[in-house]
Amino acid sequence: MNLAQKLGYPENTKLLIIHADDAGLSHSENQATIKALQNGSVNSYSIMVSCAWFYEMATFAKTNPNYDCGIHLTLTCEWENYKFGPILPITEVPSLVDQNGYFYKTRSDFKNNAIPSEIKKELTAQIEKALQFGIQPTHLDSHMCSVGVTPEILDIYKDLGKTYNLPVFINKQFVESISLSDEKYNFENTLLADDLLIGYFTDFEKGELRNSYAKALDNIKSGFNIFLLHPAFDDFEMQGITINHPNFGSEWRQIDFDFFTSEECKSKLKENNIQLITWKEIQKIN
Amino acid sequence: MNLAQKLGYPENTKLLIIHADDAGLSHSENQATIKALQNGSVNSYSIMVSCAWFYEMATFAKTNPNYDCGIHLTLTCEWENYKFGPILPITEVPSLVDQNGYFYKTRSDFKNNAIPSEIKKELTAQIEKALQFGIQPTHLDSHMCSVGVTPEILDIYKDLGKTYNLPVFINKQFVESISLSDEKYNFENTLLADDLLIGYFTDFEKGELRNSYAKALDNIKSGFNIFLLHPAFDDFEMQGITINHPNFGSEWRQIDFDFFTSEECKSKLKENNIQLITWKEIQKIN
């Protein structure tokens, strides 16, 4: 039986989770995520425990357990002026931070410095903090897919999923595309998302990001699909956070918000017979 | 000799520092502070090491050492959804945090829980972190004047000033007005600001905040005066931070920004023969 059948749908159903990354990053990201859940087509999000606006989003998560809420495990911080780092004391996880005590900006600096035992310790602390706050997480995923850089780190991530009985988001093609290792990944006995739908910078540059989302929904295949977006408002705060970083920048995030709260998106889901599913359903049968 | 004379001015000069609190709190606060320094009448600010936007402001401080930059020692967090806490691991300073690991919201919860040795440890860490970042601080002051709640805590603050050879901001009347202790303060051998000029909620509520600032400049007395303001933009981020807290809320902070970058303010300073001075000058003769 494939995932669709296990969930009670016909074998060739186009399953989709529409998932908002980066909740907790900023007020703008939080409020756009909340609106996209309440009024849009987004049905899942994940929360960054390391960020200053975690508390606001955690409060929403506790009072709105009807939405999928994952933990967006964080080991990198890509922004120029807005910094975050481990929730553990940096003396406990020194290999995860730069000279200022913040996470490295790139997956490659992270990969070249991070010691696996410290990665495991920090990610465990992030999950535990979310649990202490009363969040009931539905899944795990990873900021900038930093857990995908080597098979060893991906195994830590998969093990955390087993330990906490939470499905983990993995797309084989995406992990392999960002890999920084020559070693082979072991995807056996792992639930894999068949297709990862995500925006591309080339489309954004051409002003085609919104259209690319519409097309992706038109071309969606049967199987387990995940649409990853980053809804936020193109406001002063997000412009400050994403300065000099148009890739997944504030303008991009506004487009994400606009499309996934649009009537066009709702119609596309209907026209294409797309079946929205949740991590919660997957958790039950996993 | 009084302070004016020590600084080379006539005895009865109206000395004034126009000081912006809370830099580092948010992008809005940072950018408004920077604009108020560069284009307005503000000539001093202090930075919150515990906050998410510290890095952006610290970068400004390092590249713009011409402005007074103090360390805004932080032991409380008054906001509902936007939280910060110690920079030390909370296991080292457990008496400073609530059940979620953040600073207490009120001076009174802080006073009832905080152990003096932990206060000293955390404040030292905040100063050390600023120094490590390459900031050359010109003075110390305190968020919500939490160091003023008891004579014992005020002494820690004064001692830190001596240790780091930094003048500390103290106004006797203000400290006594927020005191939570029956014991007497010892202000001997302490440089005191004669008058603290600050906005009041009653004026804000009546729509008279801006006028109260203009009047305060008209009525300024000779001596060592400090105007405390909190410039920020009344934008989505600051509205999120200051939600349900109109006292020093985002609307208030926009008024602070508007007045202290206005021509009216500049004229008032001139008309009233007010002499702007800096903590840097005071540091030299202290």
Automatic annotation (TrEMBL), chains A, B:
<keyword id="KW-0378">Hydrolase</keyword>
<dbReference type="Pfam" id="PF04794">
    <property type="entry name" value="YdjC"/>
</dbReference>
<protein>
    <submittedName>
        <fullName>Polysaccharide deacetylase family protein</fullName>
    </submittedName>
</protein>
<keyword id="KW-0479">Metal-binding</keyword>
<keyword id="KW-0460">Magnesium</keyword>
<dbReference type="InterPro" id="IPR006879">
    <property type="entry name" value="YdjC-like"/>
</dbReference>
<keyword id="KW-0119">Carbohydrate metabolism</keyword>
<dbReference type="InterPro" id="IPR011330">
    <property type="entry name" value="Glyco_hydro/deAcase_b/a-brl"/>
</dbReference>
